[in-house]
Amino acid sequence: MFRKSVRASTPPADHHLELVDLFTKFGSAYSRFVRLCIPSRPGDAVTAPRLSLLGLLMTQGEKMIMSDLADRLGVSSRTITVLVDGLEKEAMVRRASDPKDRRATVVEITPEGTAVAKRLIGPHRANVATLFEIFDPEETAALAEMLRRMNARLTDAGIDTAGVSLTDTPI
Fold first, then answer.
1. Domain count, the chain
2. What is the pTM of this model?
3. Is 107 inside a domain boundary?
């Protein structure tokens, strides 16, 4: 359907344009909210991107090629390097050469990184969930179904919607 670029063949309906505007505002505000929900203690060096990286490593078998991490997190190679550098400095991940491809670098979560992720992911998800307390169970189910349909549409358009789901993180 949309494989390479997306171009509207007809002018969009006004109610669809309203959703574009609302999602643009919501997406930015939601990202800020998610960052504010990370439980922290004095001295913690865990940011939302770092926690996402740790969570992704936990859900994907504890090791991933650095470029694959960047793709899944939706960040540049420079950004993933900075994230891994910081986590490596804190002894939460370590780098190794990929035995199958010496040009690639594998990032592996350490026991320290696993402990930090396990300590933070559950409370973080609970904090983020407070945003949805305004919905009753029926509204929650309806919103969840609409988001699943939108994800399916994006997937059909060739867009990777896997992202990072902390739901599957073994806590």
1. 1
2. 0.73
3. yes
